């Protein structure tokens, strides 16, 4: 059983890594709860590289970044809006 769980988790790791896109923060707007990111392709959304404005799922994310920061992030289409659901510093 442990082997099966290990195999399943190992298969999920590449998918998790692919869900994060590389980007650079261009603007943080705490008032409107939006963030502008210049990003590479977002595979999970079939989106090419571009600069665009995203909503954020949790406004607290906006306090974690500033313009110029290199990040890795996850975005989803929620309620018809492209929304950042996870963000972390790029390594």
Topology, element by element:
Blueprint: H1 2-18, E1 21-29, E2 34-39, E3 50-56, E4 70-78, E5 81-89
What are the main properties of this structure?
alpha+beta, 1 helix, 91 residues
Structural class computed from helices and strand pairing: alpha+beta
In terms of per-residue confidence, which ranges show pLDDT below 50 for 5 or more consecutive residues?
A: 12-17
One letter per element, helices H and strands E, the order comes to: HEEEEE
Q: What summary fits the major beta sheet?
A: 5 strands, mixed, barrel
> What is the β-strand count?
5
Strand order of the largest sheet: 1-2-3-5-4
Q: Which of globular, elongated, flat, extended, rod-shaped describes the shape? A: globular
**Helix content class:** 10-25%
Quote the average pLDDT.
Answer: 87
Number of helices: 1
Describe the structure.
By secondary structure, the protein is α+β, with helices and mostly antiparallel strands. Helix content is 19%, strand content 44%. It is built from 1 helix and 5 strands; from the N terminus they run H-E-E-E-E-E. It has a 5-stranded mixed beta barrel. A hairpin with a 2-residue loop joins strand 4 (70-78) and strand 5 (81-89). The longest helix is centred in the first third of the chain and has 17 residues, at 2-18. The protein is globular, with a radius of gyration of 15 Å.
């Amino acid at each position: 059983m442990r082997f099966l769980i290990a195999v399943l988790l190992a298969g999920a790791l590449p998918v998790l890594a692919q869900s994060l896109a590389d980007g650079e923060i261009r603007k943080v707007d705490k008032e409107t709860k939006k963030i502008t990111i210049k990003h590479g392709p977002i595979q999970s959304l079939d989106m090419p590289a571009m600069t665009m404005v995203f909503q954020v799922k949790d406004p607290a994310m906006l306090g974690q970044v500033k313009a110029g920061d290199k990040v890795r992030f996850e975005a989803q289409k929620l309620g018809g809006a492209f929304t950042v659901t996870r963000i972390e510093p790029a390594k």
